[in-house]
Amino acid sequence: MPAEWAPQSAVMLTWPHPGTDWFSRLQEVEPVFLDIARAVLRFEHLLISCEHVFRAEELQRELNAWAGQQQLPGRAHCVPAPANDTWARDHGPIAVSTEDGIRLLDFRFNAWGGKFPWEKDNALNRHLANAGCFGDIPLEAVDFILEGGSLESDGEGTLLVTSECLMTPSRNPDHDRSAIETILGETLGATRVLWLNHGYLAGDDTDSHIDTLARFCNPDHICYVRCDDPEDEHFPALSAMEEELAQFRQADGSPYRLTPLPWPDAIYGEEGERLPATYANFLIINGAVLVPVYGVPQDEAALAIFRDLFPLREIISVPCRPLIEQHGSLHCVTMQLPPGAVNL
Question: By residue range, what is the domain housing residue 105?
Answer without folding.
Answer: 10-337
